[in-house]
Specification:
CATH architecture of the largest domain: 2-Layer Sandwich
Helix content: 40-55%
Number of domains: 4
Distance between the termini: 92 Å
Oligomer: single chain
CATH class of the largest domain: Alpha Beta
Order of helices and strands: HHHEEHHHEEEHHEHEEHEEHEE
Radius of gyration: 46 Å
Structural class: alpha+beta
Number of strands: 12
Largest sheet: 5 strands, antiparallel
């Protein structure tokens, strides 16, 4: 009921107030200057008009008086407005972050001069703060780029806004290709979902890599962002795991040795008594067979313990300059079951323990040869459901190495069946070989990491088979 039809104004509605017309500051100064001199001008004009002069003389004098009056008013306006315009230009330049302008006529003996002094002081302060901010930002960018820890920042939509060089190396892509993509697209969605100070697996640097995620929030231009810092704790966790295995091995070795010694002694005593005991041939054969089994198993268990003691009591490497090629050639010549092909590679001299390096290469090469000699079978579907046929291939193992700026990368490739369970290859006691002990790869990784390097086993992508990738530093850090 109270509303009016569309298009018809409501008579009861209040009209908006009219905008007040306000003269410009310059016009007001000019007007006030004219008004201040107006009484004097009127008195002068009356005095001139009462004089017994000609009309032309009176008008000329009055016109001259008006012209001088107007010039003085304009001069007063100029003196009042020009300094303010200068200060306005200086402040506008400060707003545009241009700190080269300064107000002139700064003096302490008048109000306008004090205002100019304060504006110049503000300009100096802002210029100094600007320089400090630029230097701090440059230092921060330098630190972010130089730290060896991957660092990422994401906006509220989980879009990457900043990545440092370590992050680029981790993701193996340049910042140009990474910025603007979401955390899911670059494989870091687990970091966004995880709590801070938690360890998460990430598909970088091998399937067993573990990363400590540190999350924090900050604001940029009022918009909340998330900072992600990653730390590779795989080696630290492996050290803890290795220490636990070594302690377990020492305890098991001590207890088993305490049991093996009397077992072997009693078995020898019983064998000596059997020869003089009154037993028939069948009984003697049964006793001999049983004691032989006990002695054989005791001997096998002793060899088992000695192998694991080697893992638990690995000495630190004795580093010295060593040529890599002779060691690789010597290891390749040890394999009688399959010729190992060593490709032409650049000369390399490393600071390593040659004995430990050779043992590591023997373990890796032997695994590759055994995998290459393992029979492969074609799928049954290709044979009409009949028994699978052995696929035709020639076993092959290839060793090569390349040099980077800081590291040597040695690769051992085979064309065997590949890895069925890559996550467990470095777990102690785990083996897929009937006669394996499960310490060869663990010992090899321990040797590589003792030299500041790493080992990675992965299935080949160009064909069926496995690739062992060993990374060793070309120079050892000074102690």
């Amino acid at each position: 009921m109270g509303s009016s039809p569309r298009g018809i104004p409501n008579r009861g509605a209040r009209k908006p107030p009219k905008k007040r017309v306000r003269l410009l500051y310059e016009r007001r100064v000019n007007l006030y200057a004219l008004l201040v001199a107006l009484p004097g001008m009127l008195v002068a004009d009356i005095f001139i008009w009462l004089q017994p002069w000609t009309l032309e003389s009176k008008l000329a004098l009055m016109f001259t008086e008006l012209f001088v009056w107007w010039l003085l008013a304009m001069a007063l306006q100029e003196q009042a407005t020009r300094p303010l315009q200068t200060l306005a230009n200086v402040i506008a330049a400060l707003r545009e972050e241009d700190y080269s302008f300064r107000a002139r006529g700064a003096a302490t003996d008048d109000a306008l001069g004090e205002l100019s002094i304060e504006v110049n002081a503000l300009a100096d302060l802002l210029a100094d703060q600007r320089i400090r901010a630029i230097e701090a930002a440059a230092l921060l960018r330098r630190v972010v780029e130089e730290i060896e820890v991957p660092l990422f920042t994401f906006d509220p939509d989980q879009i990457l806004r900043l990545v440092n060089s370590a992050g680029e190396r981790l993701l193996q892509q340049s910042s140009v290709r990474l910025l603007g993509r979401t955390a899911r697209e670059i494989g870091l969605v687990a970091c966004m979902d995880a709590e801070s100070e938690t360890v998460v697996p990430l598909p970088f640097q091998g399937p067993n890599a573990r990363w400590l995620v540190r999350r924090s929030s900050f604001r940029q231009k009022g918009v909340p962002h998330t900072l992600i810092v990653l730390s590779d704790v795989s080696r630290a966790l492996r050290e803890e795991e290795r220490g636990a295995w070594q302690r377990l091995i020492r305890v098991l070795g001590h207890e088993l040795n305490n049991s093996l010694t009397p077992i072997k002694s009693i078995a020898g005593t019983l064998r000596a008594q059997i020869s003089t005991a009154a037993l028939d041939s069948d009984q003697r054969d049964d006793f001999e067979r049983g004691l032989s089994i006990i002695e054989a198993r005791s001997h096998s268990l002793n060899r088992f313990l000695q192998a694991y003691r080697q893992l638990a009591q690995m000495p630190p490497p004795a580093l010295r300059k060593t040529e890599l090629s002779p060691i690789v050639q010597r290891v390749a010549a040890l394999e009688a079951g399959l010729p190992v092909q060593v490709l032409a590679s650049p000369p390399a001299e490393l600071m390593v323990d040659p004995d430990q390096l050779e043992q590591m290469l023997i373990n890796l090469t032997r695994n590759a040869v055994e995998a290459a000699l393992e029979p492969q079978h074609a799928p049954a579907a290709h044979n009409g459901g009949a028994a699978p046929l052995a696929s035709s291939r020639e076993p092959r193992v290839v060793v090569r190495w390349d040099l980077t700026e800081k590291d040597l990368v040695l690769t051992i490739e085979d064309n065997g069946p590949g890895l069925g369970n890559p996550a467990n290859v470095f777990v102690p006691f785990y083996t897929t070989k009937p006669s394996g002990s499960g310490i060869g790869l663990v010992l090899s990784r321990q040797i590589a990491e003792a030299h500041g390097g790493s080992i990675e086993l992965l299935n080949r992508t160009d064909q069926k088979g496995c690739q062992a990738r060993v990374v060793l530093p070309r120079t050892q850090p000074q102690a």
